[in-house]
Amino acid sequence: RALEADIERGLERDEFELYLQPRVAARDGAIVGYEALLRWSHPERGMVQPGDFIPVAEVSGKIIDLGEWVLREACRLAADFPDHLHLSINVSPVQFRHPDFLKNVEDILSASGVLPRKLELEITESVLIDDDQRALVLLGHLKSLGLRIALDDFGTGYSSLSYLRRYPFDVIKIDRSFVSALGEEETANAIIRTIIDLGSGLGMRVVAEGVETVEQARYLTEAGCDELQGYLLGRPQPVDAAITAINASL
Ligand code: G
Ligand code: G
Ligand code: MN
Ligand code: NA
């Protein structure tokens, strides 16, 4: 059976699940929020990772329904979060480009009653490439709803700098390829310092992804990075485990 046909059935049968990975303040290690990462508990294939089904869902268009499910589920979870924690969700370029995206977001937000500032949308540079003007207007609308916008995988695109100048991001997430090269490639250290200074200078929060070692965390913190995310700080975990940790910390 094709994975594509299974996605619809999976949605009907409630086989999708969000895992939550913590994001912490570099300064004191306090959890400031979580990133929602989609998982699929497939009846025959077992746990399917997003890298295996998101591309299929994007080509087939099923990502629209799937993305709406993610948004609804994330709003439901974030509504129960304490006010100081946010939840980030990944938005596919296909979803972002869909004409009904803004309306869907508005509808789902208002139906859930969640405080919009508790939600952050992560987009990648690829959504900005083809229709500059539409993306700019759309981001403005999303921000006016109170949502925060993060630029994910920063540094991997073609014109990262011009995007920062043009679009109103609240957060930039340094791609993990730079973090993993820290200490191994001289250039990675210089690039990371430059990204942090640039983001801070523009008033954005700078988050490092894929932090796996104490040395990386120390370097990033010393360089002025605001927040850290990665296996060192916590792996993506089922919702129940994250909620238990949140309640224990209150
Ligand atoms: O969780 P993992 O590291 O396997 O995620 C792999 C990729 O899938 C990442 O690029 C991540 O951004 C993407 N991804 C995870 N969850 C979602 C989701 O809910 N929606 C979209 N569009 N992408 C997701
Ligand atoms: O594209 P995006 O940044 O949304 O991708 C997030 C992906 O990175 C998820 O699949 C998540 O499981 C993965 N991830 C999170 N922390 C780490 C880490 O410390 N190391 C590695 N290799 N992957 C990570
Ligand atoms: Mn992400
Ligand atoms: Na990323």
UniProtKB/TrEMBL annotation:
It is found in: Membrane. Residues 1-250 form the EAL domain. Belongs to the ammonia transporter channel (TC 1.A.11.2) family. This is Amt family ammonium transporter. It comes from Peteryoungia aggregata LMG 23059. The chain holds residues 797 to 1046 of 1080 of the full protein.
